[in-house]
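Here's what a typical entry looks like (Pescadillo-like):
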Amino acid sequence: YSSGEGAEYITRKAALKKLQLSLNDFRRLCILKGIYPREPRNRKRAQKGQAGIKTLYHVKDIQFLLHEPIIWRLRDYKIFNKKVGRARAIRDFESLKKYLNNHPTLKLDHIVKERYPTFLDAILRFRQLLTFQEIKAHYANGLL
């Protein structure tokens, strides 16, 4: 399928393979970036004739995730965990200490800047959240 609805959607399994991520990392990344599965107009065509119901994502969303710097950090975490696990297994505490002191850090500042480009946007969103929490607290106490 090179055009049409079959080329517009990709299954979750194919997306995981393309991004080279685990399911948990993929879920985290999708939540952070605000990408959700989509419902195609014609599921059979979108699934390339396959039966059953599969989770489908838009190809452009996955392309968008491919250029995300967080993916490299998630891969660094995977490598870090392998090194730490190996050092623990062979009881090499010197290397273990070195690895734990130089662990990779996940920076989310670019996602915050992307979601809230100005300070005013962030303040307005924060205000909405506080209002929602206040309503929720009143509802929990039986005041509403």
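Residues 109-140 form one domain.

More examples are in the samples folder.
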